[in-house]
Specification:
Elements: E1 7-12, H1 17-31, E2 35-42, H2 55-73, E3 77-83, H3 92-105, E4 109-113, H4 124-140, H5 148-152, E5 163-167, E6 174-177, H6 182-190, H7 201-216, E7 224-231
Parallel strand pairs: 1-2, 1-4, 2-3, 4-5
Antiparallel strand pairs: 5-7, 6-7
Helix pairs in contact: 1-6, 2-6, 3-4, 6-7
Length: 234
Amino acid sequence: MEETPRKVLVVTPHPDDADFWCAGTIAKWIGDGATVRYVLCTDGGKGTTDPNVSSEELSKIREQEQADAVEILGVQKLVLLHHPDGFLEDDDEFRRELVRQIRQVQPDVVLCPEPYRKNLAWHRDHRIAGQVAIDAVFPYARDHLHFRELWEREGLEPHKTATVLLWGAEQPDTHMDIGDTLEVKIRAVAVYQSRRSGRSESEVAEFVKERAIGDGAGQDYDYAEAFRKLTFRT
């Protein structure tokens, strides 16, 4: 994508998912004037190897880390859906929540996880979040008779989103140059101390750089983020 979208919605299953996969792109777009909203689907309260921390304690830590990360990136709004980590469902409740966010934001682009991976393991919440986000974009947010109550009671008009970018794709077809925003991405990822597994800040930075180098392989720039692009008629 060469043009900067005006409005962007990011659907992230857990704290740190979006920041690892697309924070460089988000920072780039915000620097160019885009308005960005993050929707954090779960509380992140399960992903730890520490037997001494409870799910409730961990969720508070991880949601705060997400808040700190979006502040670093300059994201204008963070919405917390508070679903329990590991329990996202492809159901009307979750789909309605995402349709509400799409109709509120009226995004040009939605970013979310790739739901379909054949050869690489993928967290169940990632699969569900990606699939429900795509369905919410098309057809549910498009048609006023889907979740009619959002239109009649909340005044949320239908919206057609032109583009969805899926992170974590096995065969990406869209790359974003993040050379100018790599450092801010590193800062955003580094706030997740609960997920470091003993890594130092320098090790986290090197990990993020190596991933960006890999995603930039074959491109005309050194550091990139990679996506699979879906387009919809608007």
